[in-house]
Specification:
Blueprint: E1 14-15, H1 17-24, H2 27-39, H3 44-47, E2 57-60, E3 80-83, H4 85-93, E4 98-102, H5 103-107, H6 111-126, H7 132-139, H8 143-156, E5 159-162, E6 169-173, E7 179-183, H9 193-202, E8 212-213, H10 217-224, H11 228-236, E9 240-242, E10 249-251
Antiparallel strand pairs: 1-6, 2-3, 4-7, 5-6, 8-10, 9-10
Helix pairs in contact: 6-7, 6-9, 9-11
Length: about 260
């Protein structure tokens, strides 16, 4: 996590199924779940709408994967709500998350590769058991294209593919320096994947601790290697804006404004 002051070096966080399952199966988590259900046996999201339904599970609004060490299963550091399974299912589909992406990696990718890379990280961070078919569903790209992209990501990116089981398992080690953070809600914007991939790469050129990119349109085309119409599409969609004197661009969509 970025801080104004230099923090003590933290171990990088990896999204993987084994770590999550270890926490879910721990005595501490089971005790926490039971205590929460006893404290509030009704679905809190339904109650907020004036509907009474029994709760069947608990949900950590702030994922325990955001914490390390003793904080991970501490009630002090988790915000839990009880909810019925129908609400849980609908809620999980709308969860967004911040994804850290390595700047050197993004600068080595094309727009379409950057789009696939971002979608892959979103998929495995939401579900560590994601398969290539899940990534295909998110991206709308053919399985052959995804397969070729994944091979490149395994070589140049922080993506590990475990091929020892019946199906591939993906894990991602977050960068601890030289990274940008983008929210997964970028995928909900009404632009094509080439524009999204461009914006993901474009973020790498922003000023430190700023949402401004000190490049003119012509410099973007030549230095980043994109078409003029790709930049114009991002402008028309209201994802970025151009300064009055056309000397710089500024990110304005919330998914791209995380510092």
């Amino acid at each position: 996590m970025p801080y104004l002051k230099k923090p003590n070096k933290q171990p990088s966080r990896t999204f993987n199924r084994e770590e999550r399952q270890k926490i879910y199966q721990s005595t501490k988590w089971k005790e926490l779940r039971l205590a929460k259900l006893m404290q509030q046996p009704l679905c809190e999201l339904c109650l907020a709408k004036g509907i009474i339904k029994p709760a069947e599970d608990i949900h950590h609004i702030d994922s325990f994967m955001n914490y390390t060490g003793t904080k991970k299963t501490s009630q002090k550091h988790l915000t839990l709500i009880t909810l019925c399974l129908s609400v849980k299912s609908a809620t999980q589909k709308n969860i967004t998350m911040n994804i850290k992406l390595s700047i050197p990696v993004l600068q080595a990718l094309t727009n379409n590769e950057a789009f696939t890379y971002f979608c892959t990280l979103v998929a495995i961070s939401k579900n560590p058991d994601s398969t290539i078919k899940d990534i295909v569903r998110i991206t709308g790209v053919s399985e052959t294209t995804i397969f070729n992209h994944l091979k490149k990501f395994e070589e140049v990116a922080n993506l590990t593919i475990d091929r020892t089981g019946c199906s591939n398992k993906y894990s991602y080690t977050e960068p601890t320096k030289f990274f940008v953070t983008i929210d997964s809600s970028l995928l909900d914007t009404d632009v094509d994947r080439n524009v999204i991939g461009f914006l993901i790469r474009f973020k790498c050129w922003s000023r430190i601790a700023s949402n401004i990119v000190d490049l003119s349109l012509n410099r973007i085309v030549h230095e980043i290697g994109v078409q003029h119409n790709t930049v114009y599409s991002a402008l028309e969609a209201g994802l970025v804006e151009r300064s009055d004197k056309k000397l710089y661009f500024k990110f304005i969509h919330p998914s791209l404004c995380i510092l």
